[in-house]
Amino acid sequence: MNDSPGPDAHADIYNPERATGQATAAPQLLEDTGPDPSEQAARQIAFNAGPPSWNGKPLRPWTSAREGHWIEVRHALGSRHLAECILSSYTFLPDAFRILFLCHAEESVIRSLRGDPLRFQCAVDAWVDDHVPLGRHDEANTVAMRIYNLAHKNHAESAPSDSPEHGDDSGN
Known about the structure:
Layout: H1 11-14, H2 16-20, H3 37-48, E1 53-54, E2 57-58, H4 64-76, H5 82-85, H6 89-104, H7 107-113, H8 117-131, H9 137-152
Antiparallel strand pairs: 1-2
Helix pairs in contact: 3-9, 4-6, 4-8, 6-8, 6-9
C-alpha cells in the first residue's frame, strides 16, 4: 500500500483561498525609495575618480605582495569565500577596510605585520577608527572594489572545454 500523500495534499499551502474558502486580500506592495542620495553621490564620485585615493591622499597600487598578504590574512582569519562576500556591502566591508589599509600603509608596516594575522587585523581596526567614519562605509566598499577590479581587469582564464580536439586546456 502507498502511504504517500496524493498530489493535492499540499495544495492548501500554496493556495490560501482553497484552505480557508475565502478570497485573500492582494499583497501590499511597499515602495522602495532607493539609497540615500547623498550616499549614492559619494559612491559615484569615488567610482568615477582618477587613481584611487582616500581622504584626499592617493593610495599605493594594489601589488601582488599586497594581495598575497590580504589573501593570507583572509585565510588565517577564516573569512568567507570572496564570491560570497561581494554579494553584500555589509559582508565585504572587513575586506574593504583591509584593502584600503594595505594601500595606505608603508611597505615597512606591511612587512612588520606579515605572518601575524591578529596583529595585522588590530592595525587595520586602529587605522579604520582614525580614517573611516561610519558614514563612509559604502564609499570605502566602492573604493576597495575599484582597487581590486582595476588590478584584475586584464586577468583572464580560459574556459574549460570537453571537446577532444582541444586536448589539455590547462595552459601548461
